[in-house]
Every structure is written in structure tokens, then in C-alpha cells.
Prior knowledge:
This protein is α/β, with parallel strands linked by helices. The protein is built from eleven helices and five strands, in the order αααααβαβαβααααββ.
Amino acid sequence: MKPTDISAQAVGMACRCDCGSIEPRGHEKHADLARRSFLRNAIAGTAVALAGATVIHALPALAQSTLTPEAALKALMDGNQRYVAGQLQSLNDDLSILKAKTVEKQEPFAAVLSCADSRVPVEFVFDQSIGQIFVVRVAGNVTTPEITASLEYGVAVLGTRVIVVLGHGNCGAVKATIEGKAVPGQISVLYAPIQPAVVAAGGNLDAAIDANARVQATLLSEASPVIAAAIKEGKLMVVAARYDIMSGNVLLLT
């Protein structure tokens, strides 16, 4: 799987409301233009917000992991198969040794942008232990300047080799965006970054969850010069995936 393939598909999911060469009409054309405008603005806005993060650019990548991006992704997926089979190996690790080893530094080989949902225990899902995954969590697994900056740190400073944007089944944030109901506090700020995926999926929950993971993976790949450069140099892979909360399986979205 190539990051560029995922990027192209993510843009497609975010920007097309129809397939083929039929010209959209009426509200479909309006929705198509709205999706295109949002994605362009989201990428541009994130890039501008991150432009001031010069400290990240100045720091050399430590690149502690010797894994290739492909090998890092395989390690995660192999761990997921152990999780599904109920054969976790990470629980056998000596936690006292791991804690002592990671007091002064961390060497995660992968990063995961996950939903904050309590049913998605990222380390368990990939059967990894202390210091192995750099996890960033937010409802709806959406990227913001702060989220992107955190993942940039994982890439530029910690040397992570793969970033997985992990959506999950029955996601409440995506479902709420589809329903568009009034909610208390600031919960509704999550709607805007998820809306392009909802529109592209025609309001179907499962399709919107997958589209959202792809859209967020594209934003990370294209809006961040740090992440984009690492991908171009073959040092990083950014992929979208979906976690099935019933079976425990992680499906890579191609």
C-alpha cells in the first residue's frame, strides 16, 4: 500500500459526491462545491497554523526505530491478529523493565490517531506495550493544528515510521454529525471536520466512518510539511484504518 494511493482516495472520498462523468445538479452541485471548499480550507488552515512551529523543523529526527514504514505497519497488524485471537504477548513483558527503559526517553515505532472512545484500547488492539506506540486521541479521530503538531513531534523527534488514523464502528462523533442535533457545550465543533465525510458518504454511518478516516489521513499527509517530507523520503507511511469493536479486527482502508 502506498501513501500516495491512500491520499488520492481520501481526496476522492472527501471531494466527489458522484462517480463517472455525470455533471452534478442542484443541491448535489452545491454540496460538491462545499466539500471541495472545506477540504481546501482545512488543508490551507492547518498548514498556516503549523507554519509557526519552526522548532519542530529545527529538531533532527532521532529515528530510534530501525523498522521500515512497511515493517512498522506489519508489526501493528500482526499485533492486532494476536489481539483478535486472544494471544496477547505484550502482557508478558516485564513492566518494571519497560518503565525503567523509558524513563529518560521513548522510542515508539508507530503513531496512532484514534477516537477517544473508551471501546478502542489502542495498545491492546495492536498488542503493544509501554513506549511502543505514540497515541493521540480525540473524539472522531479528527486532525487539528494541535493534533497535527503532536504527530509531527512523533515523526520528527521520536522517529515513528507509520501513522495510523483509526476510525471505529458505531462512532458516536460521526453519528452525531449525521444527525446534526443540538448538543451541549462545545461538542458541535466536531461536526465541521467530519461533515465532508458525511456528505461524501450520503449519510451512511459505516461509509462516513471510513471516509472520515481517509479524509483525516489526507489532511495529515498534505497539510504538514514535516509529515509530507517524511513520506516523500520513504521514512513514513500514513494509512487510514477501521477498528471493528465487535470482532476486534483492524481493517486497512485502501
